[in-house]
Amino acid sequence: MKTLKKTLALVMAFAMLLSLTSCGKVKEYDADGITSVLEDKLGIEEDNIYITEIEGSGDIPGGTSITAQYEDARINVLIADDADKLKDLFEGYYDDLTDTLNDGDFDGSYKNALTDSFGYVVLKGEQPGSTLGTRFATGSIYAGLYYTGSMFVMIIPEGLGDSKDGMTDNVGKVIDAFGFPNV
């Protein structure tokens, strides 16, 4: 009976460890998976999802670009031909954003992680400077950037609209639809 209890305890401990290590990972989608989430979970019409094959240029690798808009949240996805170049691109964004977070210039909630196989930065709050474009140079922002394998997803507010200085709950709805880490 003791052996059975020890075995059961070991199995449960292993299962808990496995579930903890999978938390926070970024699920990788191919182009069909991305469009499925956009259409089926977010209700975006096929005519409003733009899929383009792009050639690499400078730091940006070639591949399949998928863009769409959900209410006032913009979704940009790159499924790259060169996974190493894509990882370098993400790491540039990651370094810039985490420098801002580490400098104490960001007031809000955020999560970030970077491993050999995936990375993300998701933030919601006040940011005095941003590598996400001049419209987010000051004020509030809610955004998520995700990388794994050959996929890079950027979810940002499309415009200031009715939301407070660029903050939008629709960004959170898109993040949740993909099952990505959120704040």
Q: What does this protein structure show overall?
A:
The protein has 183 residues and is α+β, with helices and mostly antiparallel strands. The chain has one domain (26-178): 3-Layer(aba) Sandwich (Protein Transport Mog1p, Chain A). It is built from four helices and seven strands; from the N terminus they run ααβββαββββα. The protein has helices spanning 2-22, 31-41, 83-102, 169-178, and strands at 50-54, 63-70, 73-80, 107-114, 118-126, 140-148, 151-157. Strands 1-2-3-7-6-5-4 form a seven-stranded antiparallel sheet, sandwiched between helices. β6 and β7 (151-157) form a beta hairpin. It is globular. The N and C termini lie far apart (44 Å).
Keywords:
183 residues; alpha+beta; Protein Transport Mog1p, Chain A; 7-stranded antiparallel beta sheet; 34% helix; globular; disordered N terminus
